[in-house]
Amino acid sequence: MLTHVGPGNRPTMVDVGDKAVTVRTAQARATVVFPPDVLADQQAGAELRTKKGPVFDTAIIAGVMAAKRTHELIPFCHPIPLEDCKIEVQWGAPGEIVIDCAVRATHKTGVEMEALTGAMAAALTIYDMCKALSHGIRITEVRLVAKSGGKRDFAAAEPA
User: Looking at CB atoms within 10 Å, which of 35, 46, 103, 110 has the fewest?
Assistant: First the structure.
């Protein structure tokens, strides 16, 4: 059953008035993949820098800002005062940057969209700051990793 469809199959915001206030957490992940020849000498574990500045640090700031403003971007998202938002940006497999966004709030509704929005905005920022290196950069596997609070918890199975 879709929660944002009301009478007459019209879009509607979910009424959370009767829901319990609980601690809600969510973690999302996005991966930015560079063509093999682009970052051959960049992965010494150091901060990636372009003419626009420090890529990882800028992506972290953009991701937190986006998570806090999710309700302005996604229809029917409730404004949620986030208590915490942590974004980690690190090198993954060769040519990959992995972004993890973890958020927490004590509220009546979940924070999955905030975590996903934070991870995605950080990934888009990396793309924007690095597109001069290659337009072959891909943003992949944007997904919810885990959530807690509310009706049920969730933990994604790790890929094989």
Answer: 46
What positions carry a catalytic annotation?
Answer: 128
> d(Cα 86, Cα 34) in Å, to the nearest integer?
24
DSSP three-state, residue 155: strand
Q: Which domain holds residue 73?
A: 19-149
Average pLDDT over residues 43-54: 77
**82, part of any domain:** yes
pLDDT digits (tens, 9 = 90+) for 67-99: 999 999 998 889 999 999 999 999 988 889 999
Distance CA 37, CA 139 (A): 17
Residue 12 lies in a domain: no
H or E segment and range at residue 146: strand 138-148
For the chain, what is the domain count?
Answer: 1
Q: Give domain status of residue 10, yes or no.
A: no
Closest CA relative to residue 44, chosen from 89, 88, 98, 94: 94
**% of the chain surpassing 90 pLDDT:** 61
CATH number at residue 142: 3.30.70.640
